[in-house]
Amino acid sequence: MVPVPKTMRILMAIVIAVSVPEGLALLLGPASWYEFIWGWSLTPMTARFTAGVYLSVAFGFALGWRETEWERLRIPLGMLWSFALIALVSAMFVIASSPGVIHLERPFIWIWFFLYVVSVIGGVYYHIVYPRPFGAKPF
Asked: pLDDT value at position 132?
């Protein structure tokens, strides 16, 4: 049995702390907020869909907070960091190919980038480098 490391709990706390307010703002806030709290144009439907993703991830990590064994958190973390990696690559592609679509002057876009970069780095580290029970394979 490999315990959940403190740094993994910090990563979970960061995801929860950013995802809940962002998700609630996108779910319950008026459309006039979108240009201040999101890095690109959203319709009310896409804002609420995005809110659902953010709140679901936060809920999953809140449920996982009670776990004491690393192996029980591997799948939710793998889902998070693979999603974050795909989203980051997609955002970089859009920034390079379609300037102006992602509004880099909006402060919350940098929170978005921070959350996703931390998720990818933490996720890759814990899936590849972090110790496993004797005899377990990395993937």
From this structure: 63
- Amino acid (1-letter code) at residue 53: V
Within 1-139, residue ranges assigned H as helices are 6-28, 34-37, 44-64, 74-97, 107-128
Give me 125's structure tokens: 């580290």
Return the beta strands (E) in 25-109 as ranges. none
Residue 26 buriedness (CB in 10 A; 0-12 / 13-18 / 19+): buried
- Residue 68: which H helix or E strand, with range? none
Which amino acid appears at position 19 of this protein?
S
Query: Measured between alpha carbons, how far is residue 119 from residues 46, 67, 102, 124, 133 in Å?
Result: 22, 19, 20, 8, 23
Q: State the pTM of this model.
A: 0.81
Do residues 2 and 48 make contact, with C-beta atoms less than 8 angstroms apart?
no
Q: Is pLDDT above 90 for 26? A: yes
The amino acid occupying position 121 is: I
